[in-house]
Design a protein that fits this description.
The chain has five helices and no strands. By secondary structure, the chain is mostly helical.
Length: 83
């Protein structure tokens, strides 16, 4: 496991749960704020690992579809542009 992967596994579930709740509530603005705060506190590489291996697998198909539509609705932007 890489050091980034190791760091991603050390992220507390209490940080991830609000992100899952914002997705469940279909609150894209809240999700983006949580994402931005996470990247500011950690870094983009750890965010990518947490999102791809902890958040995304936890989502049902409808939530994945909603999130993709929300992303595409505002245009494709890099997380690096948020910081």
């Amino acid at each position: 496991m890489t050091s980034i992967g190791m760091a991603a596994t050390q992220i507390s579930i209490s940080i991830i749960i609000p992100m899952l709740i914002s997705i469940n509530d279909r609150d894209y603005l809240q999700f983006k704020e949580l994402e931005k705060a996470f990247v500011t506190e950690n870094n983009v590489e750890i965010w990518q690992d947490v999102f791809n291996f902890r958040i995304l697998p936890a989502l049902d198909q409808q939530s994945k579809k909603w999130l993709l539509q929300a992303w595409c609705g505002e245009g494709i932007a890099s997380v690096k542009d948020l910081v």
